[in-house]
Design brief:
6 strands; 7 helices; 185 residues; alpha+beta
């Protein structure tokens, strides 16, 4: 966070409700949850930097006691002082797709078995993954209509949809799967 703050790079970071922050209104450290009781959008201080705490609306009441549903608000720290509160919440919500894409990059074709030891290796792998994502989007277009009917938190990432469609097409054509890394043994 300090790296991003020093370079004035925008970030949106979810923190725990128990995180202690210095709230300018009261001038002392208080938990994010306590601050959130008074205001849903305020300026705080952390690491001697002025930041913003944005608190999401409460999640909907649980309708099905058997299903585990989100019951907590989001407490988001950001250095974006210009955007509207709703825009910050929307930006943060897009992280689900980003997280799913990174998870899919890691798990598809056992890429999680790679032992990355240097920043250069990680950077190169991330560039290749980004190029693959771009090529998948460019060749495939929009995600399938089925995915639009699925709950946003249960959607597969665009890259996963592309990869599964590619593997399915190869099987139908009688070809082998594409293997990025050989399996050990």
């Amino acid at each position: 966070m300090k790296f991003l703050l020093k370079r004035k790079i925008f970030f949106y970071l979810r923190i725990k409700q128990g995180q202690h922050l210095t709230w300018r209104e009261k001038g002392k450290k208080q938990q994010a949850k306590t601050i959130g009781r008074y205001t849903k959008d305020t300026t705080i201080t952390l690491f001697s930097y002025k930041m913003r705490l944005v608190v999401s609306p409460p999640p909907p009441k649980q309708t099905n006691p058997k299903k585990k549903q989100n019951t907590q608000r989001w407490y988001i720290l950001t250095n974006d002082m210009e955007s509207e509160r709703d825009e910050i919440l929307r930006i943060y919500a897009t992280r689900f797709e980003i997280e799913e894409t990174f998870k899919d990059y890691k798990h598809i074709q056992k890429l999680k078995t790679l032992r990355i030891k240097t920043i250069a290796t990680f950077t190169m792998l991330l560039w290749f993954a980004s190029i693959a994502q771009w090529l998948a989007w460019w060749t495939k277009g929009a995600p399938s209509t089925h995915e639009k009917r699925v709950h946003p938190k249960k959607r597969r990432s665009f890259f996963r949809i592309f990869w599964e469609d590619l593997q399915r097409s190869l099987r139908i054509a009688g070809l082998k799967q594409i293997v990025i890394l050989p399996t050990p043994g």
